[in-house]
Amino acid sequence: MGAANNGPEMSVSTRGILNKVRQMVPPMLDKFHKGQLGRVAVIGGSQDYTGAPYFSAMASARLGCDMSHVICTPAAAAVIKTYSPNLMVHPLMRQSPDDEVKQLDPEKVSASIIEMLPRLHVLVVGPGLGRDSLMHDTVSCVIRAARERNMPLVMDADALQIVQRDPDLVKGYREAVLTPNVVEFRRLWDSLGLEDPGTAKETDKVEVLARALDGVTVIQKGQKDLISNGQLTLVNDLEGGRKRSGGQGDTLTGSVATFLAWRKAYLDGLWDGGHELGEDELIGLAAFGGSAITRECSRLAFLKRGRSLQASDLTDQVHDAFTGLFGDDDGDDGGSKL
Length: 338
Prior knowledge:
single chain; 338 residues; alpha/beta; UDP-N-acetylmuramoyl-L-alanine:D-glutamate ligase; nine-stranded mixed sheet; globular; disordered N terminus
């Protein structure tokens, strides 16, 4: 797999996995119509947090999903709409009112969001969600409805707190991908009452956590990204940038979501090609693809910005990261060329 000049160095293992991921990348064909290559929605965004859902949704859009939505509170929607006209912003979430007499029913709030689910392929839950109890209860209702539809979920940030309190919400759901950082991973670990396996293998803990959640895919973010559903484990050792600014994880959630949407297109056979990948490995490969894009975005952005790097700098690098890892887009039925 040839990288561009000054492209990322990678291990033989990572190169092989990326070659598999490439098979999921749809070619750019005239026969496709709007929406076939991905309809992704980010549920998050509150009065205090508007950047995170924007970065997630924009990463998804820049990577190549056809339609990128943000579902947030009215206060957040008014702000996010000013960031980009390319996103579809829906002010359907609600935060708890100050007046205790006027408490809202999360099932009623979630109803209009659940009505949108048939028009979507993947949900990202958590960026900018905050810790408001009504927001969390509403999201729980939506997750249950998405699970009934077998819709892929990518969960991060404050959505992981919901999993800590109610692991059964996602336990056993193999369409779910969790993306905890070091602190979030430890909190999930403790909430499940897990014990240190006592071995030196770097993937032991992520495998234990994934098995405790009965097959959920976990991306343990760190110096390397460790990805496992408890049975299949992948290690992404691509170099990233050295600046750890807030918001970089939002590029990961949006990127994983787009790869999950492409997974559906791959399974639906929307283009001619080998289609040799097993369905049981596609979630892990989608997670690896999103991880690889994010780490390469971080590397490229750090080369340009150094210690001044911010989350928006990763957004600007999504296309270059894609072409560096997977090659230029083409119109052949076989997909993108490396």
